[in-house]
Amino acid sequence: MKLAYYPGCSLSTTGIEYNMSTLAVARTLGLDLWEIPEWNCCGASSAHLTNHLLALALPARNLAIAEEAGLDVAVPCAACFARFKATEAAVKDSAETRATIEEVIGRKYEAKYTVKSLLDVFVNTVGLSQIKTLVNRPLEGLKVAPYYGCLLVRPHKITQFDDPEDPVTIDQIMSAIGAEPVYWGYKTECCGAAHPTVVPEVGLKMLKSIYQGARDAGADCIVTACPLCLTNLDMRQKEVGEQNNTQYNLPVFYFTELVGLALGHDPHTLGIDKHFVDALAFLKNKGFLNPVQNRRDSE
Amino acid sequence: MSIEAVKADKAASQENWEPKILVFACNWCTYAGADLAGLSRLQYPPNVRILRVPCSGRVNPQFVIRAFQKGIDGVLVAGCHPGDCHYATGNYFTRRRYLVMQRLLEFMGMDPARFQARWISGSEGPKFQQVVTQLTQDIKALGPNRKLRDME
Amino acid sequence: MLKNLEEVRVFMERINLTPGLAQAKPIRDSLKEHCGTDVGRCYQCGKCTAGCPVAFAMDYTPREIVRLLQLGLKEEALKSKTIWLCATCDTCSTRCPREVEPAKLMEGLRQEAKAKGLVADKRLDLFNDLFLQLVEKYGRVHEMGLILKFNLLSAQPLKDAGHGPGMFLKGKINPLPHTIKDNGEVKQIFARVRALGGEGK
Amino acid sequence: MKRVGVFICHCGTNIAHTVDCEKVAKTAAEFPHVVFSTDYKYMCSEPGQMVIKNAIKEHKLDRIVVASCSPRMHEPTFRKCMESAGLNPYLMEMANIREHCSWVHPDKEKGTEKAIDLVKMAVAKVVKNTPLTRSSIPIHKRALVIGGGIAGIQAALDIADAGYVVDIVEKEPSIGGRMAQVDKTFPTLDCSACILTPKMVDAAQHPNINLVTYSEIEKVEGYVGNFEVTIRHKARSVDVSKCTGCGTCWEKCPTKVASEFELGLGTRKAIYTPFPQAVPNKPVIDRDNCRYFKTGKCMVCQKLCPTGAVDYTQEDQLETIRYGAIVVATGFDLFDHSVYGEYGYGKYPDVITGLQFERLINASGPTAGKIKRPSDHKEPKTIVFIKCVGSRDEAKGKPYCSKTCCMYTAKHATLVKEKIKDSQAIVFYMDVRTPGKNYEEFYQRAVDEYGVQYVRGRVSKIYQKGDKLIVKGEDTLLGKQVEVEADMVVLATAMVARSDAGDLARKVGFSYDQHDFFTEAHPKLRPVETHTAGVYLAGACQGPKDIPDSVSQASAAAAKVCGLLSKNEMATEPIISAVNESICSGCGLCISICPYKAIDLKTITERVHGKMLERQVAAVNSGLCQGCGACTVACRSSALNLRGFTNEQILAEVDALCL
Ligand SMILES: Cc1cc2nc3c(=O)[nH]c(=O)nc-3n(C[C@H](O)[C@H](O)[C@H](O)COP(=O)(O)OP(=O)(O)OC[C@H]3O[C@@H](n4cnc5c(N)ncnc54)[C@H](O)[C@@H]3O)c2cc1C
Ligand SMILES: Cc1cc2nc3c(=O)[nH]c(=O)nc-3n(C[C@H](O)[C@H](O)[C@H](O)COP(=O)(O)OP(=O)(O)OC[C@H]3O[C@@H](n4cnc5c(N)ncnc54)[C@H](O)[C@@H]3O)c2cc1C
Ligand code: SF4
Ligand code: SF4
Ligand code: SF4
Ligand code: SF4
Ligand code: SF4
Ligand code: SF4
Ligand code: SF4
Ligand code: SF4
């Protein structure tokens, strides 16, 4: 299965382990990810907040390149996914918008192919049963809080992905690899996006309620599908804990990392050593780092 | 300028030309509304002639075409507000037919504005007054109807 | 939170509704056109605010912003911190029973506030500007540069300094800017967008 | 040769002031077929009518035109006048030269000119008039009530008391409806069963009432006074004539399933009555769940029944009965709140509906009246009520207000405070609507005497945290986000139409709105009638309603039924549609157009080239046709015509005006 792949800015920097784990796991799952050559930043919320047309045009250039190659596009980052979807919808909706966008980007783009979140690709293109059969290190006893954030599921009209109030794709993937997703109320709560950096007095409080929610639900760790969410939840955890005289000790993973682990990949290949909240030690404690037979990396 | 327009121009310049307008009025709403306008002594131009029908849904497009053929200058079909039809659904048919009719008239080379449909309830005397006043003005502006005698 | 007496006074001042109400209809119409959402439909149920993850920090709750707009008090909304604090998470829009979309209003108001120079919280605005400058220049975002520059310009140079080395060591930040080989195309996009209608909407 | 007389009325000066009546009369005398024309001061007065009668006699008039006021005023007067002069009353037309002319046009010249036109049109029309005769249809003096809730029971009792036989067809094994599920009733808090049970028993024992339970309407044919209704008696598997209601069978039946009546909070057996006070108190076997029907084994109930009433071989029976009138009282359902993801999609066991709450506080309910939450049967201390769930919510539910939930929520909160002394009852609301006698007082008592806490705002999210439900809202009066840790949440879900409401309406042949509530003939002035003659509405099937409203409407519907049944026959207007069979192609287009289902196809035999051929043509049922004329326009062959307003009559008017 060949798909165009748009890693986005974060996956080459703060979210590098998302990229590493995605590429590693994709290979095992038989996904051929073709990175869009010379892709550009999608503009993220900054463009969205500043100028409507800019926010549509920046993603459109990438989509146009993928369209030239005749491929659906897989997007791991939730923020990029939301922006791409908005562009796709706008172009489909109105010929006028399409013309303007084509003029601005200097390329043809007709939204002939579909933008898919990586989660969607895992659940609906690869399939849960396929993942299940490839597991050789089931993460039994791992209680994870699946965290989707807001951008994957909203606005539902545009993302058309999973359920806006109770999304389940991460939950399903976690169950498929033997982990135990907990039910909690913060699945789609916002992580604050740029707020923890830009307006920390607000952003850190937003994070606090999420940590608290995961802890109350009895989770050992949090799983996400968004580099922005992960960076916020991971990097700020200590700080927020200190502010509130507590330690949350909730490692934060990309779902691809846990899938990779379950498929038998080496945690370093997956980038699990790159987290702020010590994920390696945590996994070791849980007994998930014992060598498995038939390790994927040796193939 | 179309032939009709040229003729209209000529006729309109003839002094004292007054249009004749036929109103198909539903017995339960618009006819009663016109009665109320009378009861309230609301004045309006004397150009309209009301033809009572049980329901606006009774108005066959052929009646309208016949009126235009015979030289009427404007036709109004008026009945109960959508949802208020005395017969539950009659005025929905009217609404649908109205659009078809307008297109047909246009095809026949008439200004579709000569044919209008309006919803006027039994309590809307003032609305009746206002609608026919406006209609009379509109039709006056269009000038006399070239008779469609030769059509069909 | 009421910090001092003066704030109390301003907060409690009686509003003369007459001038605002005269504006209410045109404001409602223009919002309908520009934001695609109709404040007139809101029945002030508060469901938007109830679910908003940032409402605790706002000077007006999202519902109150809609109320200001209904009453024609748009200036007040434009001057609010709320519109800058909104995280565009879309929770409000998703749940509104009247299909009003407060998130879209916030977006529209921000663009207008910026155009009118009424930015109540400069930090988020600055962040967005810097972000886009990077995209225009390099085609991609260089997060290290972004954060350093933001902290410098927002006068909190030492903030996040603690995270920097960790990031660096984990290979998460690259000291050199990322770029795409030929960024001409992206620069073009910015130029054309500007030509078509400038920065604001 | 037709002989038309024209009579121009002055109406004192009302007409004569701005219309030159004499001139109109003179001009009219010249119109074709007019043999006599005159004007007179007051046409409707006794002497005025004498003028007409004398002229008819003297000039051998066979039809007349009266130019005077609106026909909506004096058409009946002049029709009677025709009759007493020995002419068919429908050979008369009126020209409205008062309301439509003299009163609105001050210019006498223009007014006169218009009056002449109007008279000309009327003359042209009357020439084409044909005699029409009113017919009459017999009225069958028996009524059908569909649905045995409080509305249906009340309507049946009132009709029966007036001396008419009435059948209640109820699809469940017992009558009682929703009210049987409710515990106490606002605004007086008297127990629902205490006031409903006696009514159910009255209905069962009334000599004029037949309870037809566990039965449904299969087909309705005919029309007012003469409905032919086919009823399906569903196989009960119990011979009611033998059963004594002893209860042995359902005590011993080994199969337990979730009870519909208890809304899943309790269980019942496979052979069951829905609730202890059921009327009739005779069980049915739920064949989908009964072991015998599933596996062929068991038969415990049959073995133990002391009267040999259990009969597995019963089959559905169809019965056709003739009725003069029908009252539809099929009530309502509750909105399914599982579309609310933010409230847990109906997955949290302790988020329940108001009707489930009624069962929880009901002494004969699954918890014997102790408020226990479903998940762990603990007594909840903090209960949150959320109003307008599914109501007033276009995004997820219905735009309308359900009318009863403000009141029953106040009732529920009061009962919580009464039953659990150290409890908190918190109501999230947008508005409190209490328009009824003693309703506002009831709500205020909940607040000031019982200490129910009202918080203005719609809840955005509920989620489970441990054994608590976290409820997040805004207090919009404070402008602050608020949160409650609740033990149980009760949703005031919208009242919606029964899922089969549309089907029933189509079967019986009356209209319903976009929410499937049944449509009354006029929202203010004919609230219990439908557009279909002889079919009436009562209770919540017409729109959300509480018990007092349902009962009043039921009595009103009963009054209408009695009014109808009190007559032996009913006159029908002759202004109805007629088919010209010779040109009808039998295409059937007209059938779906008719809002009253008055048109059917029938088979006729005719001789063509010496051979007898059968073909289908349209037939208009004179009992059903209301004379709207919609069908006449739909017919491509112009086979349909509306008597009194025929194509020829209308075209004659058009021509008269234009020439
Ligand atoms: C939670 C709750 C609490 C309430 N509390 C109060 C209160 O305290 N006071 C108050 O005044 N009102 C109260 N109400 C409102 C009250 O329940 C209604 O006003 C009342 O039940 C309406 O009666 P009905 O006969 O119209 O309908 P229903 O009670 O619904 O009866 C309709 C009957 O028709 C039968 N039926 C349905 N379809 C068919 C069919 N196709 N063929 C044959 N039979 C059919 C049904 O089985 C049912 O028996 C409450 C409502 C709710 C939801
Ligand atoms: C401002 C206003 C606006 C309203 N608008 C609406 C609306 O838009 N829609 C709506 O549905 N409702 C409306 N209503 C309500 C509506 O007016 C009433 O529901 C309705 O008039 C009640 O009718 P009734 O016959 O019961 O009483 P009334 O209209 O009061 O009639 C009672 C009659 O009894 C006569 N009478 C009184 N005492 C005696 C006596 N001792 N002996 C003999 N005769 C007596 C009176 O003279 C009167 O003619 C409105 C009410 C108000 C005040
Ligand atoms: S949720 Fe919608 S209707 Fe309710 S207050 Fe917010 S904007 Fe208004
Ligand atoms: S979009 Fe903005 S206003 Fe709406 S809920 Fe999210 S943060 Fe609050
Ligand atoms: S018939 Fe009509 S117009 Fe003539 S006097 Fe009587 S009320 Fe007046
Ligand atoms: S055991 Fe027999 S008589 Fe007794 S209730 Fe059951 S069916 Fe009726
Ligand atoms: S035969 Fe059916 S109804 Fe009778 S006792 Fe057995 S399971 Fe129950
Ligand atoms: S009655 Fe009250 S709770 Fe029910 S829908 Fe109306 S306002 Fe809401
Ligand atoms: S006139 Fe109207 S009611 Fe009568 S048959 Fe025709 S459509 Fe039906
Ligand atoms: S009456 Fe006309 S429409 Fe009806 S079946 Fe006959 S031809 Fe068809």
TrEMBL record, chain B:
It holds the Pfam family FlpD. Residues 21-143 form the F420-non-reducing hydrogenase iron-sulfur subunit D domain. It comes from the Bacteria. Keywords: Iron, Iron-sulfur, Metal-binding, Oxidoreductase. The keyword Nuclease does not apply. One of its GO terms (molecular function) is oxidoreductase activity. This is Hydrogenase iron-sulfur subunit. It comes from Thermanaerosceptrum fracticalcis.
